[in-house]
Structures are given as C-alpha cells and as structure tokens.
C-alpha cells in the first residue's frame, strides 16, 4: 500500500501541532465499567494508538439519559473524570494527543440500560424504526420524550459541564457529535424533528441546537479545544434529510465564525463536499467515502480535495501501529469487528520491520 507523503506531514490544530494527518476516528467500544467509568483496558487501548496525529476518543454521554448502550463511557461524575484522566495521561505519556467525542444518543437510547426513571429524549416524540443495543440483545427503539424548552437549555449546560470536565481531566479537547443518527443529528433531520418552535421547522431552526452547543462549549473551554462532527445524509438511526445541501451549508456558515479547532465531515460524494470545503476556512477533517475503498487511495483523494486531516476507523482497531505501517508500506492486520461492539487488536504488531514476531499471528481481541 502506498500512502500519500502528505499524510505524514505535520499540521496545526487549534493549540496543538500534530505530527501527521492521520486521525483515529471515534468508535464505540463498550468497554467502560457498568457505571460508565473508563477503566485500565480503555487507557491501554488508547495509549497503544498514540502515534495517530490525533485520537478522537469514543462517543461519551454528558448526562445519564444520553447513553448509547451498556458499556458506553460517561463524563458527568468525578469518577468518570478520573477515568478519563487516566486515559489522557496514558496517551500523553506515549506522545499522543486526544480529544473526546461528546455524544448524546437521543432516541437511540433505551430504558433497559438507562437509570431508573430515565427515558430517551429527542426533538420530537417519534420512534426510530430501528433496533438498538441492550444487554439482552437488539430490541426495537422506544418512542422518546420530546425535549421541552427547559430540557434543551439543560442539555446545552450538560455539554458544557462535560467539556469542562474533559479539559480538567487533561484531554486536549472535545468533539461535539452532530452525526451518525444521534441526538444532534436527530435535530437536523426533518423526519425526526417535527418541531414548530425555534428549534425546528426550516434549516435555521433545525441547526440551532448544534450551533448553540458549539458556541457554549467554545466559550467554556476555548474554541481551540472544540470540534464538531457532521455526517450529511447518513441514514443511520432511521434518519432522512430531504435537503442536506441547504441544511449543512447553513450549518457550516453558522459554525464558521466560532473559530473552533476543526470540522469533521463525512464525505457524501456529492457537490456538498466541495461546498463544505469552500465555506470552512479552518481545519477540515474528512472521513472518506465509501468506507470500504482502498484507505491510502481514499486518503490521497481527500487530501487532494482540500482535507487537512483524514480519519481512519477500523484499521486502527486491528493495527495500533497503523501510522508506521502506512509510512513504510507494511501490510495491515485485517479488521474483524463482530458488529457494532466488536473486538479489536490488543496492541502488538506482527510485522518484523516494526518490531513484531517473524511469523503471522492471529490478532487477539480486546
């Protein structure tokens, strides 16, 4: 595999200088303790992958009702903060840099794993026609409770408190998750957001919550410590967007003046990709499309189209030393995640030039 040389060039990102442009994408691993506290396994897992230019750690709920499933980490108690501090310390000791993705599941949460009395919330009381993960297996999503005006204000405060905890834990920043079918994406999508108040209706209303949270978090921890992730037209979680070009160009225009560290954009293969790059003057992180194509080729294509950073997902699971492998053209371990909460490599390399054993070896699971 021949990765483009530009992928290994340093780049500035907010207050950081990244040694390369390869980002470890946030991937749900369901490895936290039952109370959402990151444990030793998580600290080891991220430290093993510290050679990435930037790690964006997995989606982490800022409030109990925002959990995406059993084993998902949280960041709203002192114990959560201490757990993430261990992760940050491990990554930094290994020479890395790490942001934390703040994610609220919205209507993709389920009462089976939420605290007693908690119920999934969403922009509107519309159930997703999909299955969600619980400790007993995949079950149909329930009808969520529509957030009130006061609930929305509390939600903004929840994100701010979690962002402050992230910085206090020593993490380098936070990524606000407005993608992949979760709560903020639900506000962006017409079939999940049926509101007629200021938080719904046309594009201006539907983008309002994402912008409000980004602005509040940037004010609280500094814009250089904040990023936003978007995935226009991603149907995950039973979402449908009839005019992604109009909605997301409006969103990018509204986010641009905030001066945040980066925008993380999932490519669509449409004219929207070029429009995002034109409208966004800051650092642009790209998740290439389609996910299954040759990764070095996808990275080269993204960089040619104006990306500053390229995110890699499953390849980092099976190859903690992915940067070194790509740099010298070494073969990659095959990523074999067993579904949404699949396993990954523990951190060794099996390629002799990188210090691993001489022969082939099975990749163990976390």
Molecular structure report:
The model is unreliable at 338-366 (pLDDT under 50). It is globular, with a radius of gyration of 19 Å. The chain starts with 10 loop residues before the first strand and ends in a 38-residue tail after the last helix. The protein has helices at 40-47, 78-93, 149-168, 183-188, 203-206, 208-221, 244-255, 271-279, 295-304, 314-318, 322-328; strands spanning 11-13, 16-18, 22-24, 54-60, 98-102, 121-122, 131-134, 137-140, 145-146, 173-178, 226-230, 262-266, 283-287, 309-312. α1 runs parallel beside α2 (78-93), α3 runs parallel beside α6 (208-221) and α7 (244-255) runs parallel beside α8. It contains eleven helices and 14 strands. By secondary structure, it is α/β, with parallel strands linked by helices. The longest helix has 20 residues, at 149-168. An eight-stranded parallel barrel has the order 3-4-5-10-11-12-13-14, surrounded by five helices. The chain has a two-stranded antiparallel sheet with strand order 1-2. Strands 6-9 form a two-stranded parallel sheet.
């Amino acid at each position: 595999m021949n990765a483009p040389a530009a992928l290994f060039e340093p780049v500035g990102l907010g207050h950081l200088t990244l040694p390369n442009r390869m980002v470890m994408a946030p991937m749900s691993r369901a490895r936290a303790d039952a109370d959402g506290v990151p444990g030793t396994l998580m600290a080891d897992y991220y430290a093993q992958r510290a050679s990435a230019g930037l790690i964006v750690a997995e989606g982490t709920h800022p409030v109990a009702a925002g959990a995406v499933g059993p084993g998902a980490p949280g960041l709203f108690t002192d114990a959560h903060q201490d757990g993430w501090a261990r992760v940050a310390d491990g990554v930094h000791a290994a020479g890395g840099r790490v942001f934390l993705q703040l994610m609220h599941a919205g209507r993709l949460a389920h009462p089976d794993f939420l605290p007693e009395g908690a119920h999934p919330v969403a922009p509107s009381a519309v159930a997703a026609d999909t299955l969600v993960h619980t400790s007993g297996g995949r079950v149909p999503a329930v009808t969520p409770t529509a957030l009130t005006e006061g609930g929305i204000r509390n939600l903004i405060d929840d994100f701010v408190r979690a962002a402050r905890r992230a910085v206090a834990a020593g993490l380098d920043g936070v990524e606000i998750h407005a993608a992949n079918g979760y709560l903020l994406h639900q506000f962006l999508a017409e079939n999940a957001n049926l509101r007629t108040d200021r938080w719904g209706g046309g594009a201006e209303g539907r983008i309002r919550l994402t912008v409000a949270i980004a602005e509040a978090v940037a004010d609280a921890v500094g814009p250089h410590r904040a990023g936003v992730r978007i995935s226009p037209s991603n149907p995950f979680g039973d979402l449908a967007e009839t005019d992604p070009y109009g909605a997301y160009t409006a969103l990018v225009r509204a986010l641009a003046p905030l001066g945040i560290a980066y925008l993380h954009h999932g490519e669509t293969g449409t004219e929207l990709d070029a429009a995002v790059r034109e409208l966004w003057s800051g650092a642009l992180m790209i998740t290439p499309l389609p996910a299954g194509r040759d990764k070095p080729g996808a990275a080269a294509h993204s960089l040619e189209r104006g990306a500053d950073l390229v995110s890699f997902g499953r390849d980092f699971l099976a190859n903690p030393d992915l940067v070194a492998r790509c740099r010298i053209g070494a073969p990659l371990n095959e990523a074999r995640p067993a579904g949404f909460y699949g396993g990954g490599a523990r951190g060794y390399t099996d390629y002799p030039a990188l210090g691993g054993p001489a022969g082939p070896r099975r990749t163990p699971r976390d």
